[in-house]
Amino acid sequence: MNQPHITNPSRRWHLAGAAALGLMALAAVPAALAQAWPEKPVKVVVGFPPGGAADQIARLVSTPLAAALGQPVVVENRAGANGNIAGDTVAKAPADGYTLLMGSGGMVSVNPHIYPRMPFDPAKDLVPVASAARVLVYLMGKPTLEANNVQDLIKLIKANPGRLVYGSAGNGSSPHLAGEMFKSQAGLFAVHVPYRGAAPALTDLMGNQIDYYFDPGIGLSHARAGRTKLLAVGSMKRSPLFPDVPTLDEAGLKGFDADSVFGFYAPAGTPQAVITKLNTEINKILNSTAVKDRITALGGEALALTPAEFGKRGADDSQRFGAIIKERKITAE
User: Fold this and answer.
1) What is the CATH number of the domain that holds 212?
2) Containing domain of residue 265, as a range?
3) What's the pLDDT score for residue 32?
4) Does the chain have fewer CB atoms within 10 Å around its N or its C terminus?
5) What's this model's pTM, rounded to 2 decimal places?
6) Where are the alpha helices (DSSP H) in the chain?
7) Are residues 114 and 178 in the same domain?
8) Is residue 239 part of a domain?
């Protein structure tokens, strides 16, 4: 159908002006949305039990975030399936900025490799909002372990194949992958016992129920007190908290790096203005001395990234961890 020809110049200017005003109004929507949000409490769902690294970091950030947003930020723990239960909850939540996920990074970089089916696609159903911390893992032995360094532990395991037991925060968790990387590079055979989080694994380590495990930082105070034996850091650089403790790379396992990045995600479709505001406020919090020091005390390192940088880190970790998962035939079972 042919469009009518507008011959009245004033009519043309009127239509052009209306169109321009419409475009201006559309452009103003994100800014208005960012100013209006939030108008009610924001919920942060944590995929691990209370007391673990993800839970502690979520609560550490949520208090100043609530002050910055002018609304309560409520932390809710939904543990299980290496973060999948919490991830699925957030992925299916309304994309309005009122439900966020605090994930360990493994949900995006590990779970797709170890679960044959997932109730959601983390790469499509969630979007990165803000990183929070680079979390190191620390090789710790039980109090009565007959080894005082990495080489002694390797010799002990090799002399007793299949008799030593190591724990983890669950199948596919970063402590589990660190344990498998350790066995792979050192050529060891030890039995893996998965727990529902790092805290219960640490409890059994201190009770001499398991022989060793990779701690995500929650057991460092116990190591200082002699309730565990801290043998090495599973990172490419030493921890500033324990400058005399070598890395596994220094101990002979070249290139050993089991670091992971914890951070916040939102349901796909969450308005970009809300994501930008959250990223800005969370990064301000992470750059504060008090929060930096607290994350360092937990054994990690505060890490402020843009959403794009955070997403790229997850993709890179997926490649790195995917290789060891394939080699060791790791599954979620």
Assistant:
1) 3.40.190.10
2) 40-136+259-328
3) 54
4) N
5) 0.79
6) 9-36, 53-69, 84-91, 106-109, 111-114, 122-125, 150-159, 174-186, 198-206, 220-224, 272-286, 289-297, 307-328
7) no
8) no
